[in-house]
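Per your request, structure below.
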C-alpha cells in the first residue's frame, strides 16, 4: 500500500538518535541514518523530509525522557540531596556505554547551532526546561537550607555546570572527577 510506513518508527528514530549521538549532527549523513536504521534513504526522505527533521523527531523524544528523569531525580527531601541526585542522574546519562556516549544536547549545541536554527531551538528548549525543573525543585523543597544565590541564578548555574561536566567527561573520562565537580558546586550553593 502506498504511503504506509513499513518500518518500526520508534526503533528507527532510536537508532537514528544513536548515530547523531556518536557522530554529531553535522557529521551525520542520510547514508549513515539509512545504514543504522535499516531503512532505505528514499523511505527516510519520504517519511521525514531529511536529516534535520529526523533529528528533531528523535531529539524531542529524547528530551522528554531526559526531563522526566531529571525531575524524578530532584524529588528528594532537601536541596542538597536533590541537587546531588540530579547531578548523579546527569553524569550517569553521559557516561553510559563503552565508549561513553557523552551529552547529546551539549554536542548538538556546539555542532549545529549556526547552520540549523530549528535544531538550536530544540536544544535551547531542553536547556530552558531543565533550568525550570531545577528552579522548581529549589523553590518548592522546604528544608530551611539557604542558597548562596537567588534560586533562578542557582538553577542556571547548575544547568550550565552540567554542560561543563559533559565537556570534561569527553576530555578526562573520569566519573569520580565529574561527581567531585558537582559536589563542589552543591557545597558552594547550599548552606
Amino acid at each position: 500500500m502506498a504511503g504506509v510506513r513499513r518500518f518500526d518508527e520508534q526503533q528507527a528514530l532510536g537508532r537514528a538518535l544513536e548515530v547523531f549521538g556518536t557522530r554529531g549532527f553535522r557529521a551525520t549523513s542520510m547514508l549513515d541514518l539509512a545504514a543504522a536504521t535499516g531503512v532505505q534513504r528514499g523511505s527516510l526522505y519520504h517519511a521525514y523530509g531529511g536529516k534535520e527533521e529526523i533529528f528533531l523527531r528523535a531529539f524531542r523524544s529524547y528530551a522528554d525522557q531526559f526531563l522526566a528523569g531529571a525531575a524524578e531525580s530532584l524529588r528528594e527531601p532537601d536541596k542538597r540531596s536533590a541537587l546531588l541526585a540530579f547531578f548523579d542522574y546527569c553524569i550517569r546519562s553521559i557516561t553510559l556505554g563503552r565508549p561513553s556516549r557523552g551529552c547529546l544536547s551539549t554536542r548538538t549545541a556546539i555542532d549545529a547551532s549556526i547552520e540549523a536554527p530549528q535544531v538550536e531551538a530544540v536544544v535551547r528548549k531542553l536547556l530552558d526546561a531543565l533550568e525550570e525543573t531545577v528552579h522548581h525543585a529549589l523553590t518548592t523543597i522546604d528544608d530551611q537550607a539557604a542558597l548562596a544565590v537567588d534560586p533562578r541564578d542557582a538553577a542556571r548555574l547548575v544547568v550550565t555546570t552540567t554542560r561543563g561536566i559533559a565537556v570534561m567527561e569527553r576530555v578526562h573520562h573520569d566519573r569520580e572527577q565529574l561527581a567531585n565537580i558537582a559536589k563542589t558546586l552543591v557545597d558552594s550553593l547550599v548552606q
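The longest helix spans residues 117-140.

Regards,
D.
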